[in-house]
Structure formats: C-alpha cells, structure tokens
Amino acid sequence: MTTVEKNNYNSRVTPYVFSCWILAAFGGLMFGYDIGISGGVTGMDEFLMKFFPKVHERKLHAAENNYCKYDDEMLQLFTSSLYIAALVASFFASKACSLLGRRPTILMASTFFIAGAIFCGAADAKWMLIFGRILFGIGVGFGNEAVPLFLSEIAPINHRGAVNILFQLLVTIGILVANLINYGTSMMKEHGWRVSLGLAAVPGIILFVGSLVITETPPSLVERGKEMEGRAALQKIRGVDNVDAEFQQIVTGCEQAKQVKQPFKKLFKRSGFPALFISTIIQVFQQFTGINAIMFYAPVLFQTLGFKSDASLLSAVITGLVNVGATFVSIYAVDKVGRRKLLLQASVQMFISQVAIGAILVTHLKATGSLDKGLAAVVVVLVCTFVMSFAWSWGPMGWLIPSEIFPIETRTAGFAFAVSTNMICTFIIAQAFLSMLCHMRAYIFFFFSAWILVMGLFVVFLLPETKGVPIEMVEERVWKQHPVWKKFFKDEVKETTD
Ligand code: BGC
After folding, report:
1. Where are its TM segments located (predicted)?
2. Rounded mean pLDDT of 360-387?
C-alpha cells in the first residue's frame, strides 16, 4: 500500500527545486575539487621548493629511484589531513544536521571551505598550508553529511536514485575542474599553486550564496517540530497544493524515527548487522579499488612513468574526463540493469586493467629510467579503462547502496557510519600510497587487484539486488529472502521483546 501511495505523490520537477539541487550539489563539486587539486599541486616545482624542499631535491636527482621520489610523510599529510578533519567533523555535522537543519549545516560547510581556500592560497609556512587543509576537511565533513541528505529529501520519490548520483557526478566534475585548473596554473611562471588552492573559494562562495537561497527540507523542519513550515516548504518544492499523502508519510517517518532513542544501539543488534556490514564494507572496497591512488596522485604517478610535468597533468585531465563521462552511464543504467550487474562487470574490467598495469610496470619500469612512449600511452589507456569502470559502479554505488538499505529508524546513523568509514579509508590511501609505491613498487597494482577479486566474490555471494525495491520493503523483499542474511532475522521477535 505504501508503494501505491508513494507512486501517487503529486510532484513536478519545478525550476525552483532544480535550482536547489544544482546549488546544493556544489557541495559535491567542493569535495571533488579537493580530491583533484592536491595531486597536481604536489607535482609543481615551486610548491615543492617552498614547502617540501627535500622532496624537490629527490625529484631532481636523475639517479633517484622512480618509485620513491615522492615518498614523504609531510607531503602525504598535506593530502591526507583533510580526510581526518572530515572524519571528525562529520560527527559534529550529523548533530548540526538534526539540531539546526540541513541548510545551516551547508552554510557552515561553505564558510569553512572559503576559510580553507584563503589559508592555503595565502600560505607562507607549512602550518598555514596544513591548517588550511584541515579547514577544507571540516567543510567536506559538513558538506558530505548534509548535501546528500538534502538532495534526497527534496527529490521527488521517483527521481531519488538519479538525484543521489547527481552528488557523485558533481564530485567527478569537481575533480576534472581541479585537474584543468592545475594544467593551466602549472604554466604560470609564479604562484600557480596559490591560484589552484585559492580558487577553491569559488565553489565555496557559490555554495555559501546558494545556502541562503535554498529551502530547508520538509523532513528537517518536521523533525524539529515546525510542521506548518514543513508543509509550506513541501508545497513550494513540489509546485502543487495537494501534498497531503507525502506530508503524512514524512510525519509518520519522523515519528517512527523519534521513537528510536538510540539508533546506534539498534544498529548493532543482530538484525541491524546485514545493512551495517554491507554499507561499511562497500566503502572499504570502494577505496581499496585504488581509485584515489589515481585521483590524488595521477600527475605524480604519470611523472613516475617518465612523463614530463605538463604531459602528466594533461593525462590527469584525460582520466578526469573519462570519470565524468562514465558517471552518466551509471545514472542511465543503475535503475535498468541494477546495482549488482554494474558492480560485477566493473570488477572484471578493473581487475584486468590493474593486472595489466602491474605487469607492464614490473617488466618495463625499473628503478631508474622511464617507460618508452608507446608503453606509457598503453598505461594511460589502462588507467582510463580502470577509472571508467569505477565511475559507473563502485563510485556511485558506494554512496547509493548505503542510502537505501537501512530502515528509517537507523538510516542517518547508518549512513553516518558509511561516511566515516569512507573518510578513514580515503585517509589511509592518501597517507600510505606514496610510501607503498616506494616499497612495493609496481606490485602495488597487484595488491589492489587482489582486493578487486575479493570485491567481485563479495558481490556474487553477499550483495543482494536493491533495484526497484521500495526502501521500506527492503527488509521483507531483500534481507529475509537472501540465503545468508535471512538468518539474521530469525530471532527477530525475541530480539524486539528483549
Ligand atoms: C569516492 C572518492 C573518489 C571519487 C572518484 C567517490 O565516490 O568516494 O573517494 O575520489 O568517487 O570519482
């Protein structure tokens, strides 16, 4: 009955709601910009000379080991500090989201972001640089918690999946824009890195202005006892007067959620395990595909292969373009072919690409010297086939699946868990990749392929399909039908009476 009701909700995609999506999605762009910008900047000579002179020295030494020239803990800290800050901030952000609302949380995100851009762009000492990155990180933590929630709460029910992937799309656009800007600023005689880091203020300012214009979401208003305002907001967003059915659903959902005083406790009960496990492990897997080794360090990686600085940045632009393009495939296919098929197909493609990259490098890239031109081009193509398959599978699914497998009472708590797992794993990759590259050399690609193999098996045996299943029916139609997960629901009655 709920499904029928849901499908009968009155709604139109009004220009107003469309602008709200776009403005809020700038939060995704902010996140993507950060992911993409640091790799290019850490490859720039002027930046290295000013803040990391030892790395610069090492880079200049012709005889120096290819795989180790960027191995520097402080340099990695420059990239990774953001994710630790984001991790810590996301706990405060989830509180801010429920106590103050999504809109003020987005406003705070943009403020931190602008402050981060000012500190990094104006940095004269290493501490300013790292402090700026931490401010960026707090912005990302607040933004990543509030923006996906905001987007899905104001999306008409039948567009929820596609709108969810809009966030991922803007992340990929942010990465691409950052790569393009790095390509441009690397040609500047001086201060290119300052422009790259400082320009992060632009999406920050757009989001800041946007958050003054966008509406608060109806569920957030209802949650905080502002029912009248919630109804008015829903009417404005939907562009119709009669929003009774949907409004009632929101009120019921909020009441249900309020009854669960300790969502985290409920999450850790036996019946909460399948969703918690899947949404956490999917984030671990997403990061251990090795995607961010490429997103953060593509320019550095391409220099390792022997490309000149500008050719490396150009190659990073190419992978960025592939990333954006392939995300559209996901938007189109996710509700048609389903999550599982996309993930499985991609696991095969990613596995082949990583093994091939590893094989070429192990046999042809020695500690010194570089790859010959033809082989280097093959590696770039392989990186593209890897990125492409990630972009239509583990990238968007990492965010989509956790948002649709929790029951209403534990959804925000469960999602917060997924976000923080993502940040921890992103931090680990950002902090460790360059050292791993130095110690494991080209074998690092085999390390990632082994993970991809495990991920494929996980999809085959443990991941249920959620395509076309209304969220409130996931328990009956997904978990209780699955050969492995149904066992966790056997003692359910006993458990609730406990
Ligand atoms: C991931 C990021 C990654 C990006 C690449 C996102 O889904 O969470 O870590 O850099 O995809 O497009």
Report:
1. 16-35, 74-93, 105-124, 130-151, 163-181, 193-214, 275-300, 312-335, 374-394, 415-437, 443-463
2. 84
